[in-house]
UniProtKB/TrEMBL annotation, chains A, B:
InterPro entries: LysR_HTH_N (IPR000847), LysR_subst-bd (IPR005119), WH-like_DNA-bd_sf (IPR036388), WH_DNA-bd_sf (IPR036390)
The organism of origin for this protein: Halomonas salipaludis
This protein's name: LysR family transcriptional regulator
Assigned keywords, A-Z: DNA-binding, Transcription, Transcription regulation
Pfam families reported in the protein's UniProt record: HTH_1 (PF00126), LysR_substrate (PF03466)
SUPFAM superfamilies for this protein: Periplasmic binding protein-like II (SSF53850), Winged helix' DNA-binding domain (SSF46785)
Lineage, highest ranks first: Bacteria, Pseudomonadati, Pseudomonadota, Gammaproteobacteria, Oceanospirillales
Coiled-coil region: none
DNA sequence: ACCCCTTGATCACATAACAAGATAGCTTAC
DNA sequence: GTAAGCTATCTTGTTATGTGATCAAGGGGT
């Protein structure tokens, strides 16, 4: 059984004529006859009544119901890949907590505004877990810190954060080792890459352990820091954006520690669904405008 | 896009191997490659990730959902015509009121007992209306009185009733014309063919008009006749079956009026769905056993 | 009642699509 | 490093498909 035959059958059902069906579906009448005949031979049932006016038989109508299902599924599938519509698509995005909180909202908003039909699913987790989910096909794309070691993956640097040390008091240089040993650090919850950076910073300063508090929200973190509760490490642009609301000061960290690149990772572009391709388009646009804004705003 | 290709794609999705898929679906590996490749070219998307272990890409999984729908619809359709299952079938039967009341119950019961999955739909109406519905494809088969004049239809005589005149008092001959003129006749509701027979009978006896009451049920009719309310005309076997419950007597009518043949009409057998074919089987069996019983019982 | 027009079936032929086998290139595991 | 297993590619013979021409049948109009 071929989809082409079913389409011709539906044509016959609708037009009640082999000739008209042939014209409508851009072929010739003998072709319609042949296809219908082949269907009939295959199923061992007469599908079309040719005596008098052409009309589907009971069996033909029964088959037509299934043909309808098959063809509509086919058309949906084709339009999903070839058409401009992304309706019915699903897009599963994996991202780190910090990325989700700090970078994704405008991107998701822009994408959802442009393609509201896409079923967006967001999963958060640490980089290692995200990569695993990507390789297992549980998500379609991920935002992760640092380059993926996996080959055969499409990688794209989308965000480049410059981390700064945030405190309630002005700083000219890194706090002393003694200060750091007794200080409290505020971070997003476990698994966050910024938190790892804090630990990296502490190690860099010769401090092996410090108190690190988990806070769920950016506002909470900045508020606590402003209240003198401790330090935190955040992207410079984020801090600058909220600096007018909190009495906080920041210190540029050494480059190797400060620099945090967030990569967008997915399978090769050739494997992308249109929905994913559109998402990447949106992502690039938003990321580009973000860069402009932060560059002009930060200058 | 071809169903065959989709089936191979599903095979690859399940086995994770082109070779295994080829074996499972009784073809060769190069065929699987070719089909998948053609699908990919057609949709402009890579569906299978061949680097490392073979696995569907995001796009492949998206297509697989639609493939699932198409293939299951296809399989259902095929099994409807080729398999032994009639699940999901619909059977629309048209029948006259009297046939529905007197003959169909055992047939429908037998059929429904044997094929409970079939969605049975029964429509009642007079012969002309039924024939119209059959030609319009609104029902799959009908039980009608008398031969269909329409050609190209499958006709089968299934019931042959011998009508008798029923009264509360014993009769040796037809009532007199005077008696008939004042008498009341009881019949099923308008459109019933037995009612037409009553009118035919009256015309035969030279009576142009008589009072005819519509009663909805057989029991009501026989009860009223037994109470001396009037006459009715019913099949001999029906009357004999109920004779022990009512004090009624019957008179054999002249052959041309007494003989009422009920025909089963449907499109040509070649156009029958399996459900319809099974119904005809059941119908013949029940009709045959009915004949035996009535013959032995009536002798 | 006749003729004409339209419709679907059939046939022959050219082309395209397909399945199968052999081989080459690549990856993975030992 | 080698061997085994996998997929891509190529070739070939066969099948399937699309097309146009022709034939038979039915319906409508005169």
């Amino acid at each position: 059984m071929q989809l082409k035959s079913l389409r011709l059958l539906m044509g016959v059902a609708e037009t009640g004529s082999f000739v008209a069906t042939a014209q409508r579906l851009h072929t010739v009448q003998s072709n319609v006859t042949a296809h219908i005949k082949k269907l009939e031979d295959e199923l061992g049932v007469q599908l079309v009544n040719r005596s008098g006016h052409v009309r589907l038989t009971t069996a033909g109508m029964a088959l037509a119901e299934y043909a309808e299902r098959m063809l509509s599924a086919h058309d949906e599938a084709v339009s999903l890949f070839k058409g401009d519509k992304v309706a019915g698509s699903r897009l599963r995005i994996g991202a780190m907590e910090t990325t989700t909180a700090l970078r994704l909202p405008p991107i998701l908003a822009a994408f959802h505004g442009a393609y509201p039909e896409v079923d967006l699913q967001l999963q958060t987790g640490p980089t290692a877990s995200l990569v695993e989910r990507l390789t297992e096909g549980l998500v379609d794309c991920v935002f992760v810190a640092g380059r993926l070691d996996h080959p055969h993956y499409h990688l794209e640097k989308v965000f480049s954060e410059e981390l700064v040390l945030v405190s309630s008091t002005p700083m000219l240089a890194m706090p002393s080792t003694e200060e750091l040993l007794t200080a409290t650090f505020l971070a997003f919850r476990q698994g966050c890459s910024y938190r790892q950076r804090i630990e990296l910073l502490l190690a860099y300063c010769g401090v092996s352990a410090a108190r690190i508090f988990d806070l769920g929200s950016l506002d909470a973190m900045l508020g606590c820091v402003a209240a003198g509760m401790g330090y935190t490490v955040l992207p410079r642009t984020t801090v600058e954006a909220h600096q007018h609301r909190f009495g906080i000061h920041c210190l540029v960290l050494p480059a190797p520690i400060a620099q945090v690149d967030t990569y967008f990772a997915a399978a090769q572009p050739a494997t992308w669904t249109p929905a994913l391709a559109r998402f990447v388009d949106t992502l690039r646009q938003v990321a580009a405008s973000d860069t402009c804004r932060s560059e002009s705003g930060g200058g």
